[in-house]
Amino acid sequence: MKIIVLDEEFPWPLNTGKRIRSFNLLERIASRHELHYLAYGDDRSDSYHALHKAGMNPVSVASGIAPKRGIKFYCRLGLNLFSPEPYIVSSHYSSLYQQALDRLVKEIRPDMIICEWTPYAEFVKNRYDCKKIIVAHNIESTIWQRYYENETNPVKKWYIRKQWKKVLRFETRALKWVDGFTAVSKEEQSELDRLAGEIRSEVIDNGVDLEFFESGNSLPSGKELVFTGSMDWRPNQDAAVYFAQEIYPLLNQLDPEITATFVGRNPPDHVTRLSETEGITITGTVDDVRPYIERAAAYIVPLRIGGGSRLKILEALAMKKGVVSTSIGAEGLEITDGQEIVLADSPSDFVSAIANLLQDRQQAVALGEAGRKLVEKRYGWDSLAERLSRFVLSLVEQK
């Protein structure tokens, strides 16, 4: 097959969940089919060359995505109130990108266009004769709904509600412009099926590199907790603030020796300032998250906002860690509370779950062993890429 992938960026380096998923699945697809990866970027960048080396034929477009900072950013947010499209769509659309896609379609005559993020379906609306799919890493409207539900500032809450409703309308329309979609869990597939109507769908779970995330030390002697995730993503920022303000004070009263480390790139100032609390560390960007997971006594996922399924949990399970998560944090994974993970949704329950794991090291080991077996059975990238390849091919062959 000839395939064009549309994305906001080239998925490299592998330091975010979306990049890890996109690169691992599409590199494997590119080994079997002719794949071209269209994204904003620079053809002199390391990310461009990484995709070229992986056989993914990158095609770069000069970036039209405005930075999310400064007075101009807030002016753009204000102006978006007068647009029918949500900001995540209008801020990513550019005529340069559309023209580059037109040229690429004319040149290679693709069998399939994969929109690697829902807002990029805007580029295929009422265009092109080939098959088209949306890769729904998340249900975007659900994320915005949870932003709304967790926001306390009345002005921000009002604005977020406006965006949530726009995103829901866009998501519903976008699913009418394509021939199918993939979701990362059965639950999200069912919800999107309700919005999409008759188009075909498939669940392609998130996965993990089983060789890369392997550990021989599942039982450290210390009391360090760890969370890993990109700190330029708002749900992860909220998780860090929630833990520091509502969970850690209770935990510190119980045992002052317990510490927590939040590992992830580009934390904003309000997250960095959390490290002023004794016992909490905000690392910023690191070259490798594995040493932090390796030495942790338990892995924490205090997420209150999010969608899709969590690569971060799969990585921790692959390294045989006992994981304490909110229910939202573990959404989308075929995982059992008390067997591979411990779920806790209130601050007091979260504290109790952590305390139990630190006191009962045999339970932590049992959770880690069960978690490793689960990811080995279900979440390897090779089998997931094979499932995606079969789905794409079945749509292309469909009359």
Structural features, described:
The protein has 399 residues and is an alpha/beta fold. It has two domains: 2-206 and 381-397, Glycogen Phosphorylase B (Rossmann fold), CATH 3.40.50; 224-378, Glycogen Phosphorylase B (Rossmann fold, 3-Layer(aba) Sandwich). The chain contains 15 helices and 13 strands. It has helices at residues 17-30, 46-53, 70-79, 87-90, 95-108, 140-150, 154-174, 186-196, 234-254, 269-272, 290-295, 311-318, 347-359, 361-378, 381-397; strands at 2-7, 34-40, 58-61, 112-115, 131-136, 180-183, 200-203, 224-228, 259-263, 280-284, 298-301, 323-325, 342-343. Strands 3-2-1-4-5-6-7 form a seven-stranded parallel β-sheet, with helices on both faces. Helix 10 links the parallel strand 9 and strand 10 (280-284). Helix 13 (347-359) crosses helix 14 (361-378). The longest helix is centred in the middle third of the chain and has 21 residues, at 154-174. It is globular. The model has no long low-confidence stretch (mean pLDDT 94).
